[in-house]
Write a structure and sequence with these properties.
This protein has eleven helices and 34 strands. It is of the alpha+beta class. The chain is globular, with a radius of gyration of 25 Å.
Length: about 600
């Protein structure tokens, strides 16, 4: 069978589609291959400007049919896709097209920047863009045909002008993890990850108090953490402290003095962490009222509301989108983060709603900037204000445009105390385990271990509030997911009322070495975390019924339960767990047969 690589080199066509829909006879794409990677340059060889709708790098037939399984990234952090080419589906909850209203191409299913195809159980083909400095990459999947495209955004290339485009790679093989590692190295070569000493851990206010958080809630949890879990270093004050979206330096009615609060946290031996949505503002904010020209504009030169082109926002919307190309808007971002760093003492920033800094549409101060360039300019200003020794966590962010701009990246949607959400987050997070400590530090979202009063929907559609009903097995599944992610550990429960055994689980989760599990296959049932002196076996039963799981061991050794320390004996070649309850997981520690270190 001919290799997929050959299809791209020998059988693909490339061309530029103009804004009017015609194929350009002036603009030409020059492709240079170096092994499995390709670079591209667009040249206008004619004597007239060309308005570029899209640059089709590859278009043609290939051996993959509707039955081929695939995984595809979304443009947004909240969007992931899987299934087959003929029946694609969401892994997460939010679709790039339906939720963010990004355009789709008829006859194809569109993923963004990266796709992993698995035509059978023993072979994989990975293709993806290995840079994202200017242009958004689309990979369009069809039954026996495909397109690999860069969005031209109706920008104009002048006669004699040339554009350097994004780079691309193709890898084929039988080892899924090895292909992802190769791809990760290529990405890091173009976008070196921002270094950070370790994965932060701490506590987050959002999942117990939401936007109604008060200053007293922070003090109560600070006291409990200091007394019972001082390992939780960062106290993350989430959405709700600010007066308005956009006015990040002005406290709301439930807070008095943010600088004083942050300094109090530091005086107790902890680090303040703060939530900021740098690219949005609500209409009532002083930022929007006083500086409407700092925002992305509509065709009439007025600030463009986000609901005119995309999702309007989860509360206090519609939002208005700060223009990352506007010099005064960037100065404002530098001022906000420099103030929080130098005066408040914050070095950890959770950046939310970053997608709104990289949405298509509207008019920017620099009209020839792409949405990726505008976003990256804004993020550069954020980092300049926050300082090189800060920790920037991307959340609700554009994935590939964020490469090299954040230290950490949330890789799932929001946790909720419902079993389907527990399972969903694990599927989302494990699909991105390969990114951890390659592209950034992965954030699997918060560890929650206790039921709480939440919004419930009855079978007849009645909405009410009541106590969540997560079982102990399901909470343990979720805790095992956090361990297997290898990423950040942030408690999302009210620590001031947490039971002692759950407090012990939180502290135990902090004892891992922040290494992401490598899974035996894409069923995500058996994950292995290889530490220098031991191996963690992360074993999951996703099913609705009890299950027996047999695990082939990499080496003989003594096994104990990670959470309890219970000795499970010496095992040679394999381990069999019978009757694993539904919705349950085990984390086991395998020590080699040589004496424990």
């Amino acid at each position: 069978m001919i290799s997929t690589h050959t299809y791209f080199i020998q059988r693909a066509s490339s061309f530029v589609r103009e804004t009017n829909g015609n194929i350009s006879d002036q603009a030409r794409i020059i492709t240079v291959w170096d092994g499995s990677t390709a670079t591209f340059r667009l040249v206008n060889e004619g004597d007239a400007p060309v308005s570029v709708k899209e640059m089709v790098l590859f278009k043609g037939e290939w051996p993959y049919t509707n039955k081929t399984k695939f995984y595809g990234e979304g443009y947004s952090m909240l969007s992931q896709y899987g299934g087959t080419i003929g029946q694609p589906g969401l892994i997460g909850k939010f679709d790039d097209r339906k939720h963010y209203k990004l355009p789709a191409t008829e006859g194809f299913f569109t993923a963004y920047n990266f796709v992993l195809l698995s035509p059978d159980t023993s072979s994989y083909m990975l293709m993806g863009f290995t840079s994202c400095s200017c242009y958004t990459g689309e990979i369009r999947l069809g039954d026996g045909h495909y397109e690999v495209v860069l969005d031209g955004e109706q920008l104009v290339i002048e006669p004699g002008q040339s554009w350097e485009l994004e780079s691309f790679a193709i890898f084929e093989g039988s080892d899924r993890e090895a292909l992802l590692e190769q791809f990760g190295k290529q990405l890091e070569s173009h976008h070196p990850r921002l270094e950070t000493p370790n994965a932060p851990n701490g506590w987050c206010s959002w999942y117990c108090f939401g936007p109604e958080v008060t200053e007293q809630n922070i003090f109560d949890n600070l006291r409990a953490i200091g007394e019972q879990a001082p390992q939780l270093r960062y106290i993350q004050i989430d959405d709700g402290y600010q007066a308005y979206m956009g006015d990040w330096l002005v406290p709301g009615k439930s807070f008095t003095d943010m600088e004083k609060l942050c300094k109090q946290i530091k005086s107790e031996g902890f680090e303040p962490a703060i939530w900021v949505a740098p690219f949005i503002a609500q209409q009532e904010s002083a930022l929007f009222q006083e500086h409407p020209n700092w925002f992305i504009q509509d065709e009439h030169g007025q600030p463009l509301a986000s609901n005119k082109i995309s999702f309007g926002g989860w509360r206090e919307g519609p939002w208005y989108m700060l223009d990352g190309t506007h010099p005064e808007a960037r100065d404002y971002l530098r001022h906000v983060f420099r103030t929080m760093r130098e005066e408040w003492g914050c070095h950890y920033f959770k950046l939310d709603a970053n997608m709104w800094g990289a949405l298509p549409g509207g008019r920017r101060y620099i009209p020839e900037a792409t949405k990726v360039e505008a976003y990256r300019m804004g993020m550069e200003a954020v980092l300049e204000g926050a300082g090189q020794d800060s920790f920037l966590l991307g959340c609700n962010a554009p994935m590939w445009p964020s490469l090299g701009t954040v230290h950490g990246m949330r890789v799932t949607g929001d946790i909720a105390r419902k079993w389907p959400v527990f399972a969903l987050l694990a599927a989302e997070g494990f699909s991105r385990n390969w990114q951890h400590n390659r592209l950034w530090v992965n954030d699997p979202d918060c560890l929650v271990l206790e039921n709480r009063n939440i919004k419930l929907v009855d079978p007849d559609g009645t909405v009410r509030r009541g106590l969540s009903s997560i079982t102990p097995d399901e909470f343990t599944f979720h805790a095992a997911y956090i361990v297997a992610s290898g990423g950040m550990v942030l408690s999302g429960d009210d620590m001031s009322s947490m039971s002692s055994n759950h407090m012990d689980m939180v502290k135990k989760a902090l004892t891992t070495r922040n290494i992401a599990a490598r899974f035996d296959d894409d069923s995500f049932r058996v994950g292995r975390v290889n530490e220098h002196d031991r191996q963690l076996l992360c074993l999951f039963n996703w099913q609705e019924t009890a299950s027996t799981l047999t695990v082939q061991l990499d080496q003989a050794g003594h096994i104990e339960d990670f959470w309890t320390g219970e000795e499970l004996g010496l095992n040679q070649e394999q381990l069999t767990l019978t009757d694993m309850p539904p919705h349950s997981a085990r984390v086991l520690v395998l020590y080699p047969s040589t004496p424990k270190i």
